[in-house]
Amino acid sequence: MWAIAFACAVSFMGIGLVDPILPAISRELGATPSETMLLFTSYLFITGIAMFFTSWVSSRIGVKRTLIAGLVLVVVFAALAGAAGSVDAIIGFRAGWGLGNALFISTALAAIVGAAAGGARQAVVLYEAALGIGLATGPLIGGALGSVSWRGPFFGTAALMAIALIAILALLRSPKPAAGATVEPPAKVSLLASFRALRNPALLALSLVALCYNFGFFMLLAYSPYPLEAAAHASGREFGASELGLVFFGWGLALAITSVLVAPVLTRKLGLRPVLFTMLGGLTVCLVLLGVFVDSLPGLVTVVVVSGLLLGVMNTALTEAVMEATDLPRNVASSTYSGVRFMGGAIAPAIAGPLAAALGAPVPYFVGAAAVVLAIVALLVGGRHLAHIGRPHETATEEAAAITAGDA
Length: 408
Fold this sequence. Notes:
By secondary structure, the protein is mostly helical. The chain has 17 helices and no strands.
C-alpha cells in the first residue's frame, strides 16, 4: 500500500513538474514558447486518448500488470526526455510518458484499496494524501532541480519512479481467497465501452463541461510561466526555475487542500450544481484578471495562487457529478470523462503561444476565460439531464474515487 502511495505521489508530480523549466528549455534549446508548451500538449493528448482504453486493458491483464506497465513507460520516457538534445525529441518522449501515466493513474486507486490491510477508508486517506503531495511538490521539485539543469526534473522523476517500480514488484501481491472460496475474474470491458458511454446525455454534458473547463485550466498552468518571467524581468528582478517553482507550489498546495478538505463540505452543504457554477464563474474572473495584470508580477502571482483554491473545488465537484450522473460502470464513466477532459488540456498549450505572439500577451488568458464561459453554457444546457446529481456516495471507496479522479 505504501509503495503504491509513493508511486501515486510521484505520478501526480509529473503534471506540474515541467512548468518551472519551460523558459529554461526555450533558452537552452533555442525553442519558442509555442514549441515548449507542446510538452504539455503531447503528454495530455496521449494521456487522454489512452484513458479511453485503460479500463479495457486492466480488465484483461489485471490491475498489477497495468500498474507495472505504466510505471515502466514513465521511467523509460522520463529518462529519455532528460537525455534529449532537442525540444522535438522531448515532446515525443513526453507523449510516451503520458501513455504510462494514463495506465498507472487509471488503476492506482483500485490497487491501493485492494492492498490495504487496515480497511478501505484508511487506504483512501493515504491515496488522497499522496495526490495532494504530488500536486503541490511537483512544481517545487521541478524548480529546485531545474535551477541546476532543465534535465534535472526528468532524471529525478525517472529515478523516483524506478524506486516505486521496484517496491511494487517486491511488495504488491494478489489477495489470497478465503478457505474454500473462489476468486471471480474481473468482468471484461469492451474496447469501445468508453466511446459508447458518450451516448449517455448526462455524461456527454459533463464531458463537454470538462473539455472547456480543462482548456482554461491548462491555459493558466502551461502559459503562465512566460508572463511571470517577462513581468519579473520588466521590474528588474531575477525569476528563474526556483522562483517559478515556488509560485506553482503555492498554486498546487492551494488546489490540493481545497480538493480534499473544502470541496466535500461545500458540495454537501450547497449541492453539486451550485458549486460547479460558482467555481466556473470564479475561474472566469481569475483568467480575465490574469489578462488584465499580465505585466504585473505581484498581480500574476496572487491570481495564480488564488485560482488554485477554485480549481481544487472544481475538480472534485465535477468528478463527483460524473460519478453520480449515470448508472454506467464507474471505471468506464471515469475513463471516458477523463479522456475527453484531457483533450481540452492538450489543445490549450498548443494555441497559447501562437495567440500571444500574434495578438498580445493577455489574449491567451481571455480565450481561456471564454472557454470557461462555454463550460457554464454547457452546464446550463445539460441541466435537465443533471437534476438528480448530488446524492451521497454509497461507500468510502466510491466517494474517494470521485474526489481524486478529477485531479488525476
